[in-house]
Amino acid sequence: MAQQEDLLKKIIAHAKEYGFVFPSSDIYDGLSAVYDYGPNGVELKKNIRNYWWKAMVQMHENIVGLDAAIFMHPTIWKASGHVDAFSDPLIDNKDSKKRYRADVLVEDYLAKIEAKINKEVTKARKRFGESFDEKQFQETNPRVVANRQKMEEIKARLYPAMDRSDMAAIKQLIEDLGIADPVSGSKNWTDVRQFNLMFSTQMGSTADGASEIYLRPETAQGIFVNYLNVQKTSRMKIPFGIAQTGKAFRNEIVARQFIFRMREFEQMEMQFFVRPGTEMEWYKSWKEKRMNWHLSTGIPAEKFRFHDHDKLAHYANAATDIEFEFPMGFKELEGIHSRTNFDLSAHEKYSGKKLRYFDSEINESYVPYVIETSIGLDRMFLAILSNAYTEENLEGGTQRIVMKLPPFLAPYKIAVFPLTKKDGLPEKAREVMDNLKSDFMCFYEEKDTIGKRYRRHDAIGTPYCITVDHQTLEDNTVTLRERDSMKQERIPMNEISGIVAKSLTQNNQGL
Ligand code: GAP
Fold first, then answer.
1. Which of 467, 452, 486, 450 is nearest to 414 (CA)?
2. Nearest residue (CA) to ligand 1, atom 16
3. CATH of the structural domain 1-86+210-400, one choice from 3.30.930.10, 3.20.20.140, 3.30.240.20, 1.10.10.10
């Protein structure tokens, strides 16, 4: 675990040093859980966003895009349940002055019991070897059975208390379990209280009678309230989807772990509108498609897993998370939810407008059911970055850090170097650059040795470096060096474009 946390620290430092991600307001010592994307970060982020957009909108004739405003009518957040229920239970430790999410303290306690069970299973597997029957062991080993039962008892107290918003019961549970502050070990807790995660501000001047409005905590509601506008103007027939990317804001209680949990972040969401009764088949289909999208980035399958929810939100009849193995362990990357007709029905009620769709195939009007796929762009960025970050020991005892990004996501595709700054080599290298830059993001560099320039581009993931030397002046050939293999080959200048373009091909199968 310490090694993994170490990896996260290295990634954070690397991201800052190489212009991927900076703490916001850095010269003022940062702003908690807010980050800025630097020149390389903004390119990588844009490429991930475009790749998602391509998979959702370009690859599906029945999905179209939307860019709704961040500010929305305040009643929308009443209808969606965010005003009343988008809150987390908060608790402070009186001694350490640290703040926690009360439910997370209990969930961490549950995770420790689960870890004990897993340890027993691993030990038993080693002892029994081939003949080990895990199911039987889980059902009969007294320690495992007792621990499972304990977990069930805790869950049976936690989740109903959360549903009832019974803060006193959650506090009692923390006390009964003897949960201590992970930092100080103190058990001196305040009461638990609800904390709404929405940021609010005023719209209009006070003289006009300013009204309180919210920064959207999810992009989805912009899609729901526009669904008929989009359906009519794009002549969509059910089943159809609306995709949107954009900023969302949440005043997270505990915001650690770099860009994993931020107070200002970006979501990429798609709502798929279906005929009631068909939602489970679409839910299954979107689960599969979204996993295929993740795998199409080239990240190994063992880094992903589904976590199907046992406990469903009041508006959902099925939900799963796609979890990714971040440096901090497996955590939610994307949510796929079958949201029934909850949101649209609530907006019908609160707006007084009909949000029905007339289905001419069955001659019926209804409020569509919705399957939602919702992924955090910043989390995907962290997944891509942490999978790509590689420390390599090279021959001769040196080391390099290389970002093994899929070429189509890399900030720059080509770096162009003249071998030296004289003899007309920079002019020739500029000619190469000018021929390529309208098709690819290219970077021109003439400072430092070629070796140092290679290292800098390894560190930001540039798949190809091209060196222009004296021979180029004679025969128009250049040296092409590939990032991962570090292989160099001499090729004619006019072949660069074809080679690079081929490496950018994406696998769109199954998307
Ligand atoms: N419309 C559904 C929705 O917003 P969610 O599970 O709350 O569902 C969806 O959020 C995704 O947004 C998450 O899977 C995660 O990737 C991302 N996300 C949520 N909160 C975030 C935060 N504070 N910082 C970064 N990403 C976040």
1. 467
2. 376
3. 3.30.930.10
